[in-house]
Amino acid sequence: MDTSATDRLFDLHLQARTNMLQVVSALSLEQVNRIPQGLNNNVLWNAGHVIATSELLVYALSGHRTPSGKDFIDRYRKGSRPDGPASLAELDFIKAELLAGSQRLRHDYAALDWSGYTPYTTSFGVGFGTVEEALTFNNMHETLHLGAVLVLQRLV
């Protein structure tokens, strides 16, 4: 993938994360933790989930350590759900990591070896075999969850 195309991938990623951060930052701890009736997650879970999924799809499948660590990944990975209200410290971590993680990913893309990427097929039915394909899918996934957060924002 040429430099301008990868720069665009990272620009779009940062914009989605910036938009997510704006919504999360505008809500109280109580609001980001609230699970509307009939649903099984909340604003904070969606924000944490995009961080965890990005790290799994990009870092873990390339054989690299996930920056947020196993405990964080386990709390927010696909199939998880909030197991109680998150603390202010957890909220602060997620808010900081939304942008820091995007910036780290851009840096790491240039600094790390991604040639050992393990091909993967998502539950969405999309398969990919390179980190660039994973980055492209991840951007779509993050905007899907941004949409969920925008809906949840109206319900909390």
Explain what the structure shows.
Residues 15-147 form the DinB-like domain. This is DinB-like domain-containing protein. Pfam families: DinB_2 (PF12867). Helix content is 65%, strand content 3%. The protein has 156 residues and is an all-alpha fold. The chain has one domain: Up-down Bundle (Four Helix Bundle (Hemerythrin (Met), subunit A)). The protein has a two-stranded antiparallel ribbon with strand order 1-2. Helix 1 (3-25) runs parallel beside helix 6, helix 3 runs parallel beside helix 5 and helix 3 runs antiparallel to helix 6 (131-155). The chain is globular. It starts with a helix and ends with a helix. The model has no long low-confidence stretch (mean pLDDT 96).
Strand and helix layout:
Layout: H1 3-25, H2 29-33, H3 43-59, H4 69-76, H5 88-111, E1 120-121, E2 127-128, H6 131-155
Antiparallel strand pairs: 1-2
Helix pairs in contact: 1-5, 1-6, 3-4, 3-5, 3-6
Domain DinB-like: 15-147
InterPro entries: DinB-like, DinB/YfiT-like
Organism: Neolewinella maritima
